[in-house]
Design goal:
mainly beta; SH3 type barrels; five-stranded antiparallel β-sheet; 1 helix; 5 strands
């Protein structure tokens, strides 16, 4: 991993899926690199729409989700998360799933 790259080990794994292609691209990103993230947002089997956001890469890490109920530690949900700064200065945190595509611009 290049020095200064804010990417955690095991980044290409979520709790239930692996994303080795996205992880390989993210490992080569440096803070400030411009990226485009595209995905299809889905709600049930009837509704979906495309979504694209562009900005400067800040960091990537894992997001451990929490529920309002007490769960066994091995039952935690862990997601890969990208943090970017959009052109208008807004920070965006985007979790990666099988519908997500990341492109370095």
């Amino acid at each position: 991993m290049p020095p200064g790259n804010p990417v955690s080990d095991g980044l290409g794994k979520s709790a239930t899926r692996d994303f080795p292609e996205v992880a390989a691209l993210i490992r080569n990103l440096q803070p400030g690199d411009r990226i485009r993230i595209s995905r299809t947002l889905k709600i049930n089997s009837d509704h979906s729409w495309p979504f694209t956001v562009e900005g400067r890469f800040v960091q990537a890490n894992h997001l451990r989700t929490g529920l309002a109920t007490d769960r066994a530690p091995e039952d935690d949900i862990i997601l890969m998360c990208l943090h970017i700064t959009k052109d208008n200065g807004e920070r965006a945190n985007i979790t990666i799933d099988e519908y997500t595509f990341v492109q370095k611009l």
